[in-house]
Specification:
Strand order of the largest sheet: 1-2
Number of domains: 2
Structural class: mainly alpha
Strand content: 5-15%
Oligomer: single chain
Order of helices and strands: HHEEH
Helix content: 55-70%
Length: about 80
């Protein structure tokens, strides 16, 4: 077993003990990597020029120029797919 597998096994044991669930090491591993990927997307969105974080609404806000730029990028991606 690799160290990470041991770590995920221990995490599964701790979660199962605390919440009376029956998660496996593999389920913890996959959930960790899913959340890690989602967090990467969130941080990239937050670090864009013109992005601000609203602490009250708990959301990322963009100024108008960034929204227009994102729409143009999305449109060009769609055109390239066709």
């Amino acid at each position: 077993m690799v160290f990470r597998e041991i770590h995920h096994e221990e995490c599964a044991k701790q979660i199962n003990a605390k919440y009376h669930t029956n998660f496996t090491q593999r389920q913890v591993y996959h959930k960790y990597h899913k959340l890690k990927g989602q967090w990467k997307v969130i941080m990239q969105a937050k670090n864009l020029s013109g992005a601000n974080f609203d602490d009250v609404k708990k959301m990322i806000l963009y100024d108008e120029t960034e929204v227009v730029r994102m729409q143009n990028v999305s449109l060009s991606v769609l055109i390239n797919l066709i």
